[in-house]
C-alpha cells in the first residue's frame, strides 16, 4: 500500500512522475490541477468560477481545493493507496489533509520533493506551452506561478521534513531516471 505526496515547483515533472509511479505501483495519480482543468474544459459551474484564477496562476481557494480532493480520495480506487500531485500546497491544506487521513485512520508513507534549477523549470514550462497549449504556461504566468510557489508552498515543505517523511529527488534528469530514483526510495517504505 502506497500513499505518496509529490511536491515541487511548477515544471519540475510532478505530473509525469505521478503517472509513472501510478502505473508501476498500481495506485491512482490524483492531480488537483488536472481535476480543475477538466472542470474548465467541461465548462461546469466550478470550472467557470476557477478559470480566471488558474489562467493567471493564482491558487484556487483552500476550501474549494480540499472539497474536490476529499471527493476524489473517497473513490473506491483510492482506498488502497494514491499519489498526490499538487496537493497540499498551503499550510491550511496540510491541516485539511491531516484531518481527512486521520478520519480514515491512515497516514502518508512518503513525501517526494522534486527539485530543479530555475532555468530548467522555465525552459520546460516554455517548451510545454508550445506542445500542450496550457493557458497558464505563457511566459508571464509561468513567472507568476514560480513566484507563488516560492512564497506559499516552498516554506511549508519542511512541515513534512519534521515528520521524517521527505525524500529529496533531483528532477533534472530524464523522466525514467527520476522515476528510478523514486522507485529506489519507495523500496525502502
Ligand atoms: P503546476 O504544478 O505546474 O503549477 P498543476 O496542474 O498542479 O500545475 O496546477 C495548475 C493550477 O491549478 C495552479 O496554478 C492552481 O491555480 C491550481 N491548483 C492546483 N492544485 C492546487 C492546490 N492544491 N491549491 C490551490 N490551487 C491549486
Question: Can you offer a commentary on this structure?
Answer:
Strands 2-3-1-4-5 form a five-stranded parallel sheet, sandwiched between helices. The model has no long low-confidence stretch (mean pLDDT 95). It has a single domain, classed as P-loop containing nucleotide triphosphate hydrolases (Rossmann fold), CATH 3.40.50. The termini are close together. By secondary structure, it is α/β, with parallel strands linked by helices. The chain is built from nine helices and five strands; from the N terminus they run βαβαααβαβαααβα. Helix 1 (14-25) crosses helix 9 (175-186), helix 2 crosses helix 3 (45-56) and helix 4 (62-73) packs parallel to helix 5 (91-103). The chain is globular.
Gyration radius, rounded: 16 Å
The CATH topology, please? Rossmann fold
Q: Span from first to last CA?
A: 10 Å
Give the helix proportion (percent range): 55-70%
The fraction of residues assigned to DSSP E strands is 5-15%
Unreliable spans are none
User: Total strand count, please?
Assistant: 5
CATH class: Alpha Beta
Taken from the alpha-carbon principal axes, the silhouette is: globular
